[in-house]
Amino acid sequence: MAEAPDCLGQKPTLKEVRDYVVPHVSSGKWEYLGIELDLDDDGTLVDHIRKERGGDEAKCCLDVLKAWLQGKGVEPKTWRTLVGCLRKIEAKEAVRSIEENILQTTSSATQPSQDEQLCVPEPPSQPTSELEPAAIAIRSYQRELAGPGIKGENYIICAPTGTGKTLVAGLIISEHLQKRKLDGKTRKVIFMVKTKPLAQQQMDALQKLIPGASVNCCTGDDAVLSTIQLLLKEEDVIVCTDGKFLNELNDSKVRLDEISLIVIDECHHTRKSAAYARVMECYLKEKQSGQGELPQVVGLTASPGAGDNPCLSREKTLDHLHTLCALMDATGGIKTVTENTEELEKHTNKPIFRLQILPCRDYNEPFIAKITKEMAILEAKVDLR
After folding, report:
1. pLDDT in the model for residue 29
2. Angle CA(350)–CA(351)–CA(355) in degrees, nearest 5?
3. End-to-end distance of the chain based on CA atoms, in angstroms?
4. Most exposed of 183, 287, 351, 370 (fewest Cβ within 10 Å)?
């Protein structure tokens, strides 16, 4: 157990911890940590620092920092993830990155008492139902939407905005992780989104929905755990942008057979040369080759759209939907609520229409006179033709 040194208070700030740890760890340079280290070996980092600094002094400093992170609600599972946190601090906007991005993801967690702030706690015992969804009321229509996904089907979930599609995805992911764990199979989930803010938002939501699963975010902005390839070694669920996943897929850093489930948010963007479409193109090529096990694919959308179809013809709309399902390999089709429609109606946000009658304008206004004159000229030309 690492106790706080006298120079630190019971609740030290990030700067105070940095000022204490830096001189003892690497001659004032954070970036020295993790360089030329086998980070897969939990003991290598400690041994290396002991060699550089001697004795247990550096180990104690690292324990203090590890305890500080745990006091903030961040649980470094291995020394590799601790190094990731350290290197985050090195970034130019370290304070904002740590305090706003990492620590806010666990802001709802119970904060430790003052006596526990700088003590490394014993690892908690694992609950028997660690991958079960949080105790959140799941509505009947949400269970209906999740049904095919829980059975392992590839399909598209279509429901209005604000009706809890992320919760449905969380339910599918939770069931998926539990089943794969019981079967002793790979259980790695990729949750793809279009934008970086959405990645953070969905990560926060999934952490609350599936508290027993390890969920992390990867968008390319993070200078530390910036690759999906690294995160796949430790995390159960990785929320990432479509471009980030596509790049690592094209660079062979990530393989589809390493993943057991892909959730695609706003999947109606899977069209033409969009990143979603290119990811699924790789998926379909592997499926056609018959090599390796492919992940289940679930799409989320509020509206699949009608494609390039300004007249909204039935044939072109159906053609667009068939194309979307083909690109998504949605062999289960598009799932909408059909059994619990009344409940869905109650929880669907409906626009409020209001008719506002404006007073008549004075037709002697210069603007109206000018428009009327120009329109008369145009009408005369049309009549002449």
Report:
1. 38
2. 140
3. 93
4. 351
